[in-house]
Design goal:
This protein has one domain (about 5-245): Aldolase class I (TIM Barrel). The protein is built from 9 helices and 8 strands. It has helices at about 25-35, 55-70, 85-95, 115-125, 160-170, 185-190, 205-210, 215-220, 220-245; strands at about 5-10, 40-45, 75-80, 100-105, 130-135, 155, 175-180, 195. The chain has an 8-stranded parallel barrel, surrounded by 7 helices. Helix 1 runs parallel beside helix 2, helix 2 (about 55-70) packs parallel to helix 3 and helix 6 crosses helix 7 (about 205-210). The longest helix has 23 residues, at about 220-245. About 55% of the residues are buried.
C-alpha cells in the first residue's frame, strides 16, 4: 500500500461523562476531520491516550474510525509498547480491527531496532509499519542514522527538532512525517511526506495551509500549538470542548 501524503490527524479518543470511551463521538470526529481535508487518521496513538485504553477499547476505536471515514482515507493505529511481544500483539490486533498501517515507538532503551520492527512486520504481514520517534515516551528513540537500515515504511518524528527534521528529509529516502505543529511550514516546502498532528483535531485547515508553506497559517497555529505542548491531551480536549461541545475528560 502506498502511504498517504499531506496532513493527517493524531485523533483524540473522546470520553463520555462517566469516563468511558465514546466510540460514536470519536468516529464522528474522525469523519468530520476527513471531510475537512485530513488524508489519514491515527487512532490509538499517544494523543488518543492508548496507554490507558483496554484492548477491547482499542479495537472498538479503530473499527469505529475505519467505519466512519471514506475508504480513501487511511487509518493508522498506534501499537508502540514497552516490550516487543506486547507491541507485536497490539499490531496484530490493529490489523484485525481494520487498520491500514501501524505506528510504533520502540521499547525504551531498545538495542535491536531492526529486530523489533521486523517482528511487528511479521505480526501483520503486508501492513506498513511506521517508526515513531518520540523520545520523552521512548528514550533514546530512533536515530536518524539507523532509519535506512530498518524494515519500516517511514517515520513520524515528534521531537520538534528542526535540525533532525532537516537531516531526515535530506538523508533518509523513506517517508518522513512531522509530528510537531511548529515545523509545518518548514517540513512541507522542504519535501517532507506529510504530517500527523494532534493540533489537527482543532485546526485542520490551518495545519494543511501551513504544511503547504503558508507562513501566516503557521503563525496562526501558535496559540493552540503552545497550549497543547504545555497542557497535553487535557488541554486539547478542553479546546475541542469549547469548539464542539464534546466532553473534556481525559484519562491522563
Amino acid at each position: 500500500m502506498d502511504l498517504f501524503t499531506g496532513v493527517g490527524v493524531a485523533l483524540v479518543t473522546l470520553l463520555d461523562d462517566d469516563g468511558g470511551v465514546d466510540v460514536a463521538a470519536t468516529g464522528s470526529l474522525a469523519a468530520e476531520l476527513a471531510g475537512r481535508g485530513m488524508r489519514a487518521v491515527l487512532a490509538c496513538g499517544t494523543t488518543g491516550e492508548a496507554g490507558v485504553l483496554s484492548d477491547a477499547e482499542r479495537v472498538a476505536v479503530i473499527r469505529a474510525v475505519r467505519d466512519a471515514v471514506p475508504p480513501g482515507i487511511q487509518v493508522l493505529a498506534g501499537t508502540g509498547a514497552t516490550t516487543p511481544a506486547r507491541a507485536a500483539e497490539l499490531t496484530a490486533v490493529a490489523a484485525a480491527a481494520g487498520a491500514d498501517a501501524v505506528l510504533a515507538w520502540p521499547p525504551p532503551g531498545s538495542a535491536d531496532l531492526a529486530g523489533y520492527y521486523a517482528a511487528l512486520g511479521r505480526a501483520a504481514p503486508g501492513l506498513p509499519v511506521l517508526a515513531y520517534h518520540i523520545p520523552w515516551v521512548s528514550a533514546p528513540g530512533v536515530p536518524v542514522g539507523a532509519l535506512a537500515s530498518l524494515p519500516i515504511a517511514g517515520l513520524k518524528d515528534s521531537s520538534g527538532d528542526p535540525d533532525r527534521l532537516l537531516a531526515e528529509i535530506a538523508h533518509y529516502p523513506g517517508r518522513t512525517y512531522v509530528g510537531s505543529s511548529a515545523l509545518l511550514a518548514l517540513a512541507g516546502p522542504l519535501g517532507g511526506t506529510g504530517a500527523i498532528l494532534a493540533v489537527a483535531n482543532a485546526e485542520p485547515e490551518l495545519c494543511i495551509a501551513a504544511f503547504a508553506g503558508d507562513a501566516a497559517a503557521q503563525r496562526m497555529l501558535t496559540d493552540v500549538h503552545l497550549a497543547v505542548r504545555e497542557g497535553g491531551v487535557p488541554a486539547l480536549k478542553r479546546i475541542l470542548a469549547g469548539q464542539r461541545g464534546t466532553v473534556p475528560l481525559s484519562r491522563v
